[in-house]
Design a protein that fits this description.
- The chain is mainly α and 168 residues long.
- The chain contains 6 helices and no strands.
């Protein structure tokens, strides 16, 4: 079943179970919402399948990317704040070169993160092809990796949009 089929089935069942509908069931509706959230989130889905709830050690690739992501987020926040406080055209013009450089660096980190995310998806497909002989520790590690990758991708995208608004 693909994502679209799942979404269609969810909407149909959610409509029938919604507490505002005649014969609706609030508890079943909440349970359905939780199940849908798990299906949409690879990290939660893997942890649920493995029966693991606690986090495990920091994934190795996440440790490699952490300093790059943290540095680019801090630089972005500082430069975006400086631009917001710039009161005249000259100050804003002087910030354009560092903003453009930051934009290139941000794209580079996003590309590294995207490459990692693709490798995680490939690993998930490999695990899926050998299901249920999968190691719960491997699933947990993969789930944690997806959580970091997705969180960082979202944060970087926010900064990218802010830079685009400034640079035009």
């Amino acid at each position: 079943m693909d994502d679209e089929e799942i979404a269609t089935a969810y909407r149909k069942l959610a409509g029938a179970l919604h507490p505002d509908q005649q014969g609706g069931d609030a508890a079943a509706f909440r349970e359905l919402g939780e199940a849908a959230a798990i299906l949409r989130d690879p990290a939660r889905r893997l942890k649920e399948l493995a029966g693991i709830s606690a986090s495990h050690p920091f994934p190795e690739k996440a440790a490699e990317l952490f300093s790059k992501v943290a540095e680019i987020l801090q630089r972005s926040d500082a430069l975006i704040a400086q631009t917001g406080m710039a009161s005249n055209a000259l100050t804003k013009a002087l910030l354009m070169a560092p903003l453009k450089s930051l934009s290139l660096d941000l794209s580079s980190v996003q590309e590294q993160l995207s490459t990692w995310r693709i490798s995680l998806e490939e690993e998930m497909q490999r695990i899926d092809s050998h299901w249920p002989e999968s190691n719960p520790e491997t699933l947990s590690h993969l789930a944690d990796s997806f959580a970091y990758a997705d969180r960082w991708a979202s944060q970087l995208r926010e900064r990218e949009l802010a830079l685009e608004a400034i640079l035009g």
